[in-house]
Amino acid sequence: GRPQLVDRSPNVEARLAQLDYMRRLWFEICSLPLQQRRALLLNLNATLGGDLAVFAYLGVANVRQIGEILEMDPVVFAELWKELPLTDARIAQEFAMTTQAVSNRRSSARERVARRMRAFERENQKNMRRG
Q1: Which of 98, 64, 100 is nearest to 81 (CA)?
Q2: Burial of 116 (0-12, 13-18, 19+ CB in 10 A)
Q3: Distance in angstroms between the alpha carbons of the first and the last residue of the chain
Q4: pLDDT tens readout for residues 72-86
């Protein structure tokens, strides 16, 4: 017999849940103070679970919207986009901060977003059990 082709892609519900999660993640990032948003987003890289382009790829936020949430001139941001992810030193230089301040703000941002996303996931699980 012929080999069976198996669809290994996530089912529709899983894809929608992922999209919902990413929308909520974007919402939480947008609620951070400006300097935390900048420190977090401009340094996102694949080792941290994805880069900034994933928001644009999924249709959660386009490049213009990302630049706006960072409160950056669109032309300046378009140039920086090509260099992403930026080092702490580069972010510090761009926004007249110390490298340590950038690191501290990103750490605070990650903690806050992680805490809020855990609460979001718990709420989703509760709602699914009620389902």
Answers
A1: 64
A2: middle
A3: 41
A4: 999 999 999 999 999
* Residue from 43, 50, 26 nearest 117 by CA: 26
**pLDDT above 90: residue 6:** no
Which residue type, as a one-letter code, is found at position 114? Answer: A
Give residue 107's Cα distance to chain centre.
14
- In tens, the pLDDT along 22-36 reads 999 999 999 999 999
HEC string of the chain equals: CCCCCCCCCCCHHHHHHHHHHHHHHHHHHHCCCHHHHHHHHCCCCHHHCCCCHHHHHCCCCCHHHHHHHCCCCHHHHHHHHCCCCCCHHHHHHHCCCCHHHHHHHHHHHHHHHHHHHHHHHHHHHHHHHHC
User: Which positions ≥6 away from 35 have C-beta within 8 Å?
Assistant: 95, 97, 101, 105
Predicted model pTM:
0.84
32 CB contacts (<8 Å, ≥6 apart)? 40, 109, 112, 113
Q: Enumerate residues 6+ apart whose C-beta is below 8 A from 89.
A: 99
